[in-house]
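Researcher: I need the complex structure. Ligand is magnesium ion. Inputs:
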Amino acid sequence: MYKHRVFITEDQIQARLVALAEQLDRDYAGRTLNIVCILKGAAVFVADLIRLLHIPVILHFLKVSSYTDGAESSGTVHLHFSSVTDLEARHVLVIEDILDTGITMDYLIKHMTATKPASLRYCVLLDKPERRKIDIRPDYVGFEIADYFVIGYGLDYNELGRNLRYIAILEE
Ligand code: 5GP
Ligand code: MG
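Model: Output:
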């Protein structure tokens, strides 16, 4: 594994998830929630979060990638896989691992709006507002963080680190 230092502990993540789940249970009371998990990064977060929810949940998966030009996102987002069906007139919550420039989320907003849901909201585990290029404000945020490259709890560096139980900052 790459050298890293713990940034957000397992206990801090779990405590935040309990609060987020309570908020979602309240906001979607009496409704069925269609969750769209954005692969691969959000898989761990979504798996833990849905087991804290009491409202009925339908789970969908979508895989997108934004091609990078050096360190910066090129702005071109590609859809690789979708299990999304029948979202028309449904309540939809898109869940992402991390909101950085906003380019991926901007694409997802357009893509999901076309499915004509009754409501559409966005939840991210981590938000790096300093890095934003497109003005997007998620409806639910796990943790707001400064401009660090983080791994763990679903997030990778060259595909490794997703299975860490905490969120860590990569060290040289
Ligand atoms: P955006 O399109 O908002 O610039 O980028 C979102 C995507 O970039 C995330 O879904 C994630 O895949 C990747 N990303 C952005 N910041 C980080 C980070 O700190 N760590 C990891 N592992 N991925 C990141
Ligand atoms: Mg991602």
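Model: Summary of the prediction. The pocket of magnesium ion (ligand 2) is lined by residues 41, 97 (CB under 6 Å).
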